[in-house]
Amino acid sequence: MLDARDIELLAQVSDGLPLCPRPYAQIGMAIGMDEAEIISRLTLLKNQGLIKRLGVIVKHRPLGYRANAMIVWNVPDGLIKQLGRHISRFSFVTLCYQRPKLPIWPYNLYCMIHGKDRATVLAQLAQLDNACGLANFERQILFSRRCFKQRGAVYQAQQTQETANG
Amino acid sequence: MLTDLQKRLLNDFQRDFPLSPTPYQDIAEQLGVTEADVITALAELNAQHFISRIGAVIPPNHIGTSTLVAMAIPAAQLQAVADKISAFPEVNHNYEREHRLNLWFVAVAADAGKLQDVIRNIEKQTGFAALQLPLVDDFFIDLGFKLDLKHA
Questions:
Q1: Residues B61-76 as b or e (16 or more Cβ within 10 Å = b)
Q2: Among B53, B54, B96, B127, which residue's beta carbon has the most beta carbons within 10 A?
Q3: What is the pLDDT of residues B101-147, one digit of tens each?
């Protein structure tokens, strides 16, 4: 579990590591933690899966990945784990989640595909349909249009994080 | 145009960023360049908005509580409503999508009660209903994204 110091540390890291020779020492100055403790805490959080990954966070759109589709399916609850894990194995899938079925939105399986163009994304979706047996489930494809905001949720004063899409 | 160094920095260091006192020096040694080259190349990628930062991706709901929210907004009002919603510090990832439900964003708060306050405020300020779709299960281990940068 995260303790209060971990949360302070993650809030610092989520603003980005500074581009200087001793970045961990530098963020330590802001929160009064020494470099060695920062490195050992981050290592532990990563090993525990509380940090999914630590590294360069790219912006897809400026790098030519302009077709971003969120695909949602209505699948039986009993199959969802198996389908979710299968979908996640494809390298073009960037996210895969279960969310609740609601009467006006009966979709429980969500996945995101980032591609250079729509034709590629739709071909990748067809590949998923075939490989995972998804073709018979009711679904919607929602391509993104405008991006109004991409980061920086502040949930408490001085603390920011970017979740892996809530 | 991206340099070869920039391409390698974009693709090879999305995860397992060195957890040593001198991570940029470690990367430089791996790539056969200097630490200053690495720092300069990353600063340029940042300035050109190709990277958002060097940071940590945290799984949802480990710090605070979050939910995906969908709203159906008439096209003529979409920009204005989206701007109002983006102004909330609790909101990130606010996108227009091609659907009757055309506005999708993530809201994060310290706990469930505060999150509901935020959603109620958004509904009140915009006059539109918010459909809440919180995470139930996460199937995906985010290992970064392999970019095809041949023509970048």
A1: ebbbbbbbbbbebeee
A2: B54
A3: 999 999 999 899 999 999 999 999 999 999 999 999 988 766 677 78
As a dihedral over the C-alpha atoms of residue A147, residue A152, residue A154, residue A158, rounded to 10 degrees, the angle is -160
C-alpha distances in Å from residue B50, one per residue of A55, A59, A64, B17, B148: 14, 5, 10, 18, 14
Contacts of A97 in chain B (CB under 8 A): 135-140
Q: How far is B115 from chain A (nearest CA, A)?
A: 9
Q: Do residues A76 and A44 share a domain? A: no
Mutate to test the interface with B, among A155, A156, A159, A160 (most CBs of B within 10 A): A155
For chain A positions 25-84, those within 8 Å of chain B (CB to CB) are: 25, 35, 39, 42-43, 45-46, 49-60, 62-65, 70, 80-81, 84
Residue of chain A nearest B104, judged by CA positions: A144
Residue A96, domain CATH = 3.30.70.3460
CB-CB neighbors (< 8 A) of B70 in chain A: 105
Per-residue tens of pLDDT for chain A, all 166 residues: 788 899 899 888 877 899 999 999 999 999 999 999 999 999 999 999 889 889 999 888 888 888 999 999 999 999 999 999 999 999 889 889 999 999 999 999 999 998 889 999 999 999 999 999 999 999 999 999 988 887 644 434 333 444 444 4
Across the interface, do A97 and B136 touch by the CB < 8 Å criterion?
yes
Q: In this structure, is residue A153 part of a structural domain?
A: no
What is the domain extent for residue A23? 4-57
Nearest to A160 by CA among A41, A15, A17: A15
Q: Fill in the amino acid letter for B25.
A: Q
Claim to verify: residue A67 and residue A129 sit in the same structural domain: yes
Q: Which residues of A touch B85 (CB under 8 A)?
A: 148
Instruction: Please indicate whether, in this complex, the C-beta atoms of B24 and A21 are within 8 angstroms of each other.
Output: yes
A1 Cβ partners below 8 Å, 6+ apart? none
Q: How far is A85 from chain B (nearest CA, A)?
A: 6
